[in-house]
């Protein structure tokens, strides 16, 4: 079976063969446009067509490893550019240009095999595939405080980690050598010394010649202690008693559990083969890619696909990439979506025009795969982070009220187009006012964050989770009917009810009630919220800690915690 990298290699090799097969017809397009212009030097359309064909050849040939062909096409393109700015050529200059083009591209057809090794080398140079081992999310908890260790272990297990307690500092090095953990949570101070935890981490790093993500915990919140942790390359610092939800959030970010973030990239390029090449590269890096070869469809595709970054070429039929960028920026809905030009254009003035039109970056073709992936990932991640500040609830990190309503409306439209089911669940914590009154709002916030964490971990990536307001949450389940959504959510309900909540030295448990509706009830977003909300209140009235289907008396759970 081919590994991921081999699979990408085979796909790119297949696209290279398609490029080679289409190359003669591409040369014919260049010759036809040139002949049209020679026949009528006032034919600006033919001149523009010739320039676009040469521009495309300059980018695509280099992409598929035919560097010499791409470089020469770029030279021909550059020689042509003065004509685009109303310069004129004498008959002799035009004749010389035409002769050079016919001579080079005609000979290129019979000499493609000489360039083939370059293409082979281009695709053959790759690192040995990395076989990632299955991550069990092993966490070493190094601390002599047995009471706190047990509390942290219990919570981490609920959040899907495998915590292992190590009470003696001297046992840590042996444990690491035996089984390398994904992360270490370690106390700063031990009987061996005030900063013995830091010293031990440094020693392990030197002996093992590897660095393990490390989070330090301490009773001290002093600047000096925090600075020592930073100098030891600590990835986090928590004061006791440890906020376990915050600790889990830090570990999730630290370990990058979900490395495939699935950035949505829209590629707009009339060069079908080359756009497929870059599409495969980005998909192999875990991105979700939509290809658009007809720029006239841009607005409808933007609405349906909701890209987190656009990758455009400058020269396309109907309209240029610069014009397309300006059109996109005129819509307030897309004013912040990153636009990156991927083009063989090397004229600085034209690149600046692209930036003035709203572009965020300009990448020259051909481009190394690693650079393209890194550059686009960085911009897409920044866009996603900025959107999160607007669309996310500050306490839980889930979608806020406005965002969850927008997502529901969009998902309903998608479900209607594809004739697929969709369910909505409304959740409300049981007796939450009692929690706030008895333990304080800080503890109440901790409960809210714990539920948010459980929901994110237990549900699919495609499920849309939001904090609707107060202690109320909403979940959109795409491609799921109400009965299935209830069954999945019931597993979350059971798990959450077992999570111990802490307030000072007291332990308590919290449950939730929920209601589920789907498009069989209504296809109106507001009505669907109301229907699911009514079902949730039916759960409350029936004793709490249960889930009710809309217009149904079937319920799950029991009233043991009510």
TrEMBL record:
Keywords: Phosphoprotein, Two-component regulatory system. The keyword Phosphoprotein applies. Its EC number is 2.7.7.65. InterPro entries: CheY-like_superfamily, Diguanylate_Cyclase, GGDEF_dom, HPT_dom_sf, Nucleotide_cyclase, Rev_trsase/Diguanyl_cyclase, Sig_transdc_His_kin_Hpt_dom, Sig_transdc_resp-reg_receiver. Gene3D superfamilies: 3.30.70.270, 3.40.50.2300, HPT domain. This is diguanylate cyclase. Signal peptide: none annotated. SUPFAM superfamilies: CheY-like, Histidine-containing phosphotransfer domain, HPT domain, Nucleotide cyclase. Residues 12-119 form the HPt domain. Residues 420-552 form the GGDEF domain. The modification Phosphohistidine is found at residue 55. Residues 138-255, 264-380 form the Response regulatory domain. The keyword Phosphoprotein applies. It comes from the Bacteria. It catalyses: 2 GTP = 3',3'-c-di-GMP + 2 diphosphate. NCBIfam families: GGDEF. PANTHER family: DIGUANYLATE CYCLASE DGCM-RELATED (PTHR45138:SF9), REGULATORY COMPONENTS OF SENSORY TRANSDUCTION SYSTEM (PTHR45138). It comes from Undibacterium griseum. The modification 4-aspartylphosphate is found at residue 313.
